[in-house]
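So, can you check this record?

>
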Amino acid sequence: MVKRAPDLRRGLLDASLELIAKEGLEKLSMREVARRAGVSHQAPYHYFSDREAILAELVAEGFQRLRADMMAALRKTDNAAARLTAIGKAYVGFALNHPARFKLMFRSELVDAARHEQAQACAQAAFEVLVSVVDDPPAGRAGARKASPMVLAAWSLAHGLSTLLLEGKLDRHFGKGKRARAAAANAVLEAFTALNRRG
């Protein structure tokens, strides 16, 4: 059975992400993606101009999923003080559940956002979730003003925790199991929120 075009495009993206997860970004090539997807070595070029275009699509999808996870976390609480912790937990949870995609999303040397408007727009939409929780809604279009220091502090904490966990730098303190690491990270996020309330 011949794959339909949308299925083939999806298959190429899935094969790319699986390759990155198992063998690292350095192994990603158009030819290897085609081989893993079970298509001719020219097939990827019908959908993606080059390797970076595939990565940009994966980055855009990653930020869409991250935003969806954070929005879902917000819907589970009506407590204003708990909202920051909720999206922080969603952020760290996303990183732990999708490590290859998460690492790729922040590799600007591999995906130049200025060249890929969709990836840039999806990243900004995810960031605006944090802005909407911490700051008053910005006037005008999304992203029209600089984020406050509190927004940047909250993002730095969640991202730093995620990165340190994925690199195993906190295993001695948190443990190696995903559940133990998530629980310890959640405790850190809750401590940050508590400190913020006192201020």
User: Anything to note?
Assistant: The radius of gyration is 19 Å.
